[in-house]
Specification:
Strand content: 15-25%
Order of helices and strands: EEEHEHEHEEEEHEEH
Radius of gyration: 18 Å
Shape: globular
Number of helices: 5
Structural class: alpha/beta
Number of strands: 11
Length: 236
């Protein structure tokens, strides 16, 4: 038996899930904006209480490692590491773009997505990185990566080869930026929301092969360096 607590907060949406043997047991999500610092620990407590569990009964804690929001990733990783330190449980890190693809595949199987088929499709999750930049990675319909994770500035020439081949499916909170640029009939946009449930499958596979992170030294995958800016307002 495997019990994995999953935490994802790389975008405005923060969520916590509990999985048993690769199956989702419980899920808490906030879809109304960034309140991760207030909500995530509460969600963990609620889910454990709902399932009559103590944290030390978990087999592992999984966290979406990014790329994504600097602040959201810091909060999620800090919470996950804190639980691991307190319980001695291993930490699993999951690519947040891969987790988003897993949500898309689950939604397709459930008939939620407005798509007739994913056969021969390529999936392109995009996470907003401000202005016309997105964090993205190309996958096939079995969630196998076809490219590396990148910070990409969208232009009319972006992903031209994939668009020409057709059956390109875009989703994530950065995908809307490309709608005016990618107008080919083979490009499809679907609404897929980041969720901790997307961590369940890859985290379960990681637990099987004991692919764990060093709790002391693990850091989120920011992809870009955080840049602090000064306010233009005059206070004195």
């Amino acid at each position: 038996m495997s019990l994995i607590l999953c935490i994802e907060a790389g975008t405005d949406i923060g969520s916590v899930a509990l999985a048993k043997n690769g199956r989702l047991l419980s899920l808490r999500e906030n879809l109304e904006g960034k309140h991760h610092a207030q909500n995530l620990a509460v969600y963990v407590e609620e889910i454990l209480r709902e399932n009559d569990l103590d944290a030390d009964e978990l087999d592992a804690v999984a966290v979406g490692k990014g790329p994504g929001s600097y602040t959201g990733l810091r909060i999620a990783v800090s919470l996950a590491k804190g639980i691991c330190y307190a319980t001695g449980k291993p930490l699993i890190a999951v690519n947040s773009l891969e987790a988003l693809v897993q949500v898309a595949l689950e939604d397709f199987e459930a008939g939620i997505l407005d798509l007739e088929s994913l056969e021969d499709a390529k999936l392109l999750p995009m996470i907003d990185a401000r202005r016309m930049e997105v964090y993205c990675q190309l996958f096939d319909a079995q969630a196998r990566p076809l490219s590396e994770v990148e910070a990409h500035v969208l232009t009319a020439e972006s992903f031209a080869a994939e668009r020409a081949q057709g059956r390109l499916v875009l989703f994530g909170n950065g995908a809307a930026k490309s709608k005016m640029l990618f107008t080919e009939p083979g490009v499809h946009y679907v609404d897929v929301t980041p969720s901790a449930r997307g961590l369940v499958k890859p985290a379960t596979e990681a637990l099987k092969i004991r692919k764990f992170e060093d709790v002391a030294y693990f850091e989120p995958f920011y992809l870009k360096n955080f840049v602090a800016t000064s306010s233009s307002k005059k206070f004195f």
